[in-house]
Amino acid sequence: MMESFRHIYVRLCKDHHIDPQDCVLEKLKSLEVGSKSKAVLDLSTNSLTPKTCCVLGKALASDRTFVEIKFADCMLAEDAIKGLAQGLAYNTFCKKLDLKGNNIHAAGTEAIGKMLRQNKSLVSLCLEWNGMGMLDNSFAVFCEGLGSNTALRALDLRNNQISHDSVSELAAALKRNVHLRALDLRWNNCGLLGGRALLEMLQSNKTISRLELAGNNVPTDISKSIETAVQNNADRQVIIDENLKRTQTMSQHIRELELDKKLQVNELLTSLDNQQEIHRKSHRFSTEKIGNLQLALEERKGAFNSLAAKLSMAETELALSEQKVNEYNSSLNRLKVEMQELAANHVTEMRKEKEDRANEELKYLKEISETQDKNMQLQNKVEDLERKCRQQQEQIYDLKEQVTHLQSELTMKGSQYEERITQEKLRQKEAMRDFEQYKQKEMIHMKQESEDMEKILRDRISKLESQRLDMEEEISRLKSTNVSDKLNAEEQLQTLKHRLKSEEEQRHVQLEEKIRVLQTSRDELQSLTNQQVATISQLQHKNSNLQMEVDNLRRQMEELNQELAQKNNYTMAEVGKVKAELNKLQNKLDQERSVQSEMREKLATVDSQMSEQMLKHRRQMEEKEKEVVLLEEKLKGRELELVRLREEEAQRVQVLQSAILNYVGKQGTSSR
C-alpha cells in the first residue's frame, strides 16, 4: 500500500513536471520499511512547496492507506492549503488531520471550510496556532462548512485570533451542527459577547460535551454557566451513550434470539424434510415390496391354475382310461362266459361224438371205402374252410383298421377339444392380463395420488389413513372380484367337462352299438380267441402301466399341493412381515408426529419467552425514557434556576450601581 502511494506520488509529480521532494520520499520509504497496515503520514516541520502540496492532495483524494495525516509547523502557503484541501475533500479513509502552526488565514480558511462541506470521513481536525479569525468573511465560510459537516467530532481552534464576531458566527454554525462533541477555543478573543453567543448556542445544541474557553476574557459567571451547560450536555451524552449501548446490546440479543429461532426453525424444517424423505422411501419400498408380492402371487396363481388345468386333464384322461378299462373288463368277462359256454357245449358234443364214433366204428370199418371218398371230400371242404378262415382274417384286419381309424378320430377330436381348452385358457389368461393391467393402472393412479397427498402430509395425515383403509377395501374388493372371476372360469371349465363327457358318452354308445354289431360275428371269430387273449393280456399290462402313471400323477399332485401349501405359507408370512413393517412405519410416523408436536410446543414456548423478553425490554426502554424525561425536566428546572439567579444577580448589580451612583453623588455634593 505504501509503495503504491509512493508510485502514485512520483507519477503525479512527473505528470505535473515537478521534482518530488526528498523529505516526502524519505518519509514514504521509512513507512514502507515499517510496513504498517494503517500508517500515519507525518510530514511535520517540513517545508513543502505549494506544487508538492497540490500533488499530495491529488494523491490523497483516492488514498485508502493513511488514517492520520500531519502537516504541523510546516508554514504552508495559501496555495498549498488549497491544494491539500481540494484533495482531502474527496478522501474517504483519513480520520485525523493536523494543520497546526501553518499561518492559515483568508483563502486557506475558506478552502478548509469548503473541504469540511464535502468531506465525510474526518473525525478530528487540529487548527492550532493559525490566523483563521483575522478576517470575518473567510471565517464565516469556514463556519458554513462546519455547520453542514456531519462527520467531525473534535475541532481544535486554539490561538487563531478569533474575535467575538467570529465566535458568534461559529455559534450560529454549531446550532446547525449536532455531531461535534469537543471544541477547543483557548487563547482567542471571545470576550463577553462571544461567551453569551456560546451560551445561547449551548441552549439549543445538546451534543457538545467538552468546550475549552481559557484565555478568552469571558466573565466568570458566563464561563461557569457555559461549564454547567457543557457538563449537562456531557451527562446527557453519557446517558444517551449508555442508552445506545443498551439498545445495541438489546438489539444484538434480539438478533441472536431471532437467529437461534431461525436456526431452530431451519433444523425443524430439515428434520421434517428428512422425515418426509424417510417416509417416502419407506412408502416406495413398501409399495415395491407389495408389487413384487402381488406379482409373485399372480405368478403362483398362474402356476396353480396351470396345475389345476393339468390336474383336470389328468383326471379326464384317468376317467376315460378307467371307462375304457371297465369296458374292456366287461367285454373280457362276456367273452370268458361265452368261451366257457362254448367249451361246455364242445365237451358235450365231443362226448356225443365219441359215443357216436364208438357206435359207428363198426360202421366206419365197414364203410372205409366210403370214408376215403368222404375224406377226399372233407379235404376239399378243409381247403374251403381255410379259404374262409383267410377271408375271416382279412375281415378281422379290416375291423382292426376300422378300430385304429376310430381311435385316430378319437385322438383327433381329443386334440381338438384340447385346443379348445387351450383357447379357453388363453382367453382366461388374456382376461387375467387385462385385469392385471387394469389393476396396475389403478395402482399407478393410486401411487400418483399418494405422492400428491404426501406433499401436504402435515395437513392430511388423517385423510391418508382413511385413503389407506379405502385402498385396503378396494384391494379386498379386487380380490373378491378375482375370486369370483376364478369361480366363473372354474364353472365354465366344469360345463366344458360336462359337455365333453356327454359327447364322449354318446360316442361310447355308438361304439357299443358297433360292438354289438360286431358281436353278431362272434361265432366267426372263435378261431381268434387266442389272439384276443393275447391282446387282453397286453391291455392288462397297459392298464397296469396306466395305473402306475396315475399313481405317479397323484404323487406329483400331492407334492404340488404341498409346494402350494408351503408357498401359501411363505406368502402369508411375507404378507405378515409387510404388515409388521407397515405397522412399524405407522409407529414411526406416530413417533414423528409426537416429536413434531413437542417441537411445536417448544417453539410456542420459545415464542412466548421471546414475547415476554420483548415486553420486558420495552418496559425497560419505557422506564429509561421516563428517566430521560425526568432528567430533562431536572435540567429545565436547573436552567430556570440559573435564569432566576442571573436575574437576581442583574438586580443586585443594578442595586449596587444605583448605590454607587448615590454614593458618588453624595460625595460630589459634600465636596461642593
What does this protein look like?
Helices cover 80% and strands 4% of the residues. Helix 8 (191-204) links the parallel strand 6 and strand 7 (210-212). It has 672 residues and is mainly α. Helix 7 packs parallel to helix 8 (191-204) and helix 8 (191-204) packs parallel to helix 9. Residues 311-409, 447-648 form a coiled coil. This is Leucine-rich repeat-containing protein 45-like.
Which sequence of SSEs, written as H and E, runs from N to C?
A: HHEHEHEHEHEHEHEHHHH
Number of strands: 7
Largest sheet, described in full? Answer: 7 strands, parallel
Q: Strand percentage, roughly?
A: under 5%
Helical content (DSSP H or I, runs of 4+): over 70%
The Cα radius of gyration reads: 66 Å
Helix tally equals 12
Uncertain runs are: none
Overall average residue pLDDT: 82
How far is the first residue's CA from the last residue's CA?
A: 87 Å
Structural class, please?
mainly alpha
